[in-house]
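JOB MANIFEST
job_type = single_chain_structure
chain_count = 1
residues = 106
[input]
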Amino acid sequence: MTIYGMYVQNGNRAGLWVQHRTWNNVCALVQRIGGQESGKLPGRAPLHDHAPVQAKAFDVRSGRPLATDQFNVDPADRGFVAIAQPPWAHTATRALVIESFAKSSV
């Protein structure tokens, strides 16, 4: 399924955890699509004007954040699957909130 399709199935909300069939020990938290965390996607399904996806990649075993250059997403690719929130996710997402706050305070 595409990331766009999973966003819609998630009630038009980001915050979902995904894996791709080609990723080894990697998962990602979809943070925004088209700059929004919730609401209807722009354009028409299934490609939604190729709205950009903002996601953060993690090692699925440890929760260690992965460098952005190690992670490439084509949201129209049908090889994605939604996964349950990993057990370490609360720590990882708290770090993302702190990082985002620090960037916006500068």
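[summary]
The mean pLDDT is 85.
The CA atoms of residues 8 and 40 lie 8 Å apart.
exit_status = 0
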